[in-house]
Amino acid sequence: xxxxxxxxxxxxxxxxxxxxxxxxxxxxxxxxxxxxxxxxxxxxxxxxxxxxxxxxxxxxxxxxxxxxxxxxxxxxxxxxxxxxxxxxxxxxxxxxxxxxxxxxxxxxxxxxxxxxxxxxxxxxxxxxxxxxxxxxxxxxxxxxxxxxxxxxxxxxxxxxxxxxxxxxxxxxxxxxxxxxxxxxxxxxxxxxxxxxxxxxxxxxxxxxxxxxxxxxxxxxxxxxxxxxxxxxxxxxxxxxxxxxxxxxxxxxxxxxxxxxxxxxxxxxxxxxxxxxxxxxxxxxxxxxxxxxxxxxxxxxxxxxxxxxxxxxxxxxxxxxxxxxxxxxxxxxxxxxxxxxxxxxxxxxxxxxxxxxxxxxxxxxxxxxxxxxxxxxxxxxxxxxxxxxxxxxxxxxxxxxxxxxxxxxxxxxxxxx
Length: 416
Fold this sequence. Notes:
By secondary structure, this protein is mainly alpha-helical. It folds into four domains: 24-99; 104-294, Up-down Bundle (Methane Monooxygenase Hydroxylase, Chain G, domain 1); 297-384; 388-416. 84% of the residues lie in helices and 0% in strands. The chain has 14 helices and no strands. It is elongated and about 125 Å long.
């Protein structure tokens, strides 16, 4: 009796498993058929070369996605099969292209651009996932890094990788937008309503607004939750400046495209707002980091939070040192300048900070020149005069005296 019961239970489990597998297979087939049907409807409604190219790209994606289920679909689609399904779809698309009078060379060019867009989109998604993991690793390692050398080294590696990834994704997002607009090769104002609807759909399917907002939010989160080196902050300032410039190039196009959509106009305004918050945080972090770099190396300035204040307080500090040159021993004056020159000026401030501050608009070129001139004055004030200089001066003086003496000797002779 016990054996019969066990057999019955195994039968029920097998039946349930078989039924579940059949249901799963049926769901796969249904989903595939729905996707194919949707592509046929898209083909019927295609109005531009860009529409046809995107439908073809979507068919390629679908074919790759279900390739591993080919045997299942061959059985379910009989008398058609997996291969014939896509053959019919592409034949229909070719007829539609012909009906629209699409030039083959134009279709090929747009197809190449669409492949590029697809590749960029995949890279953006991949980097987003990787960055999410790196963010979590950074938070975890930050807790123990202070007490564990290995964790500290790992944290620095994660921070460096994350910073590079964030920069790369920023560039990819804008490359994606540029590539989408390149497919139309005209200004928004010159597009037909059909073309506007087409690019509108592409931007929506590629989650362009979400991607741009995500980039800003992640950059802001990274800046607020990470202890960085001065060089890192300088690089972030450059990255923020580049992102802002690229957004200013793209946002008018998006605003024109979504002129009648209040929701999308609000999205543009939201991105503007997020970018302002990020830029202000970068600005604050930059001046704080620069002040830390100086104070840790003995250069304590009055508080500053913009280019005018920094230039004024920095040059004022150096002017004071130059005026007080004769009140300190020569070796102390030289040591202070050499410490500044080696630890700050040559390695950080002149080659990294000043160019970035000028590039990002936080300093003017005139202010940069004024700062460099002040440092040159400080250097001159603490540099001992070479004995050669003294020797040259003595020779010049003796030459002048000798010349005058010879001149006076000749005058009486001339009178005689």
